[in-house]
Amino acid sequence: PLTILVATSGDTGGAAAAAFHRRPGIRVVVLYPDGLVSRRQEQQLNCWGDNVTSLAVAGSFDDCQRLVKQAFADEALRAQVALSSANSINVGRLLPQAAWFAAASLRLWDEEGRAPSFAIPSGNLGHATACAWAREMGLPVGEILLAHNANRAVPEHLGGAPWRPRPSIATIASAMDVGDPSNLERLQALWPAAGGLGGRLLGASADDLEIRAAIRDEHRRSGTVLCPHTAAALHAWQSLAPAQREESHWVVAATAHPAKFPEVVEPLVGRAVAPPPALAALLSRPAPRRPVEADYAALRDLLVAA
Prior knowledge:
The chain has 14 helices and nine strands. It has helices at residues 12-20, 39-46, 61-73, 75-80, 91-112, 126-136, 153-158, 184-190, 208-222, 228-238, 242-246, 262-269, 277-280, 296-305, and strands spanning 2-7, 26-33, 52-58, 82-85, 117-121, 144-148, 202-205, 250-252, 291-293.
């Protein structure tokens, strides 16, 4: 069988599990940080069974990603186990994401005759890299604003500081809790000339209080309910200077459904947020947890034995 090996901060793993559940000739192994995803995200990771195995790793998303990368770099393992990934390790993850930005930018270019700009919730930088690739391929994309939570290494680097990865901080926008994003290397390779990324990309960050305020205020203003990650991007756009906001048609990229984060969202909007039918159908399934240490030898043994 082909083994789809996935590190997830909450959403990628559930999507990969749903896509490949009970597909013949494929198994999925998902690693997620124990205690650092929402309750409903964890349900969505653990409720499948059959050919899907989810592991609650005692560590952060960076630890999960490190284990996955170790597996791909292990030539002896790859001689025994056919591996692929649903993470942005796999370029097949990024190219469809680039198509989203192509479609949105062309639509607005046709309507307005100017290139729209994008504010993108950012953690491991896959979505942001896809947008940058779309712009480099010639699509009418203006500014690209990378919105981060309290994990500020990337915004600081874009502001001129040396690149300094660091341990991730847990926030309410948990899918963005990444201290050492692997796709930064791809962005650096895209623009290797002296001067770095600061002239190519914008960066901003939002702490938990600012994310909560963005959720509450947007619901009051428009009735729209945002997930914490989308709210971080909205806050990043709002933090720009007025002239910078007005010189382009800005698009805020939305990510997860807010119903995945009821503990955060519902007190802010003052009502229950109904899960969409596909998610609601998963919430009643049994979802046994399988905790593991952040230990590569244990992961390797599981991959070989399964």
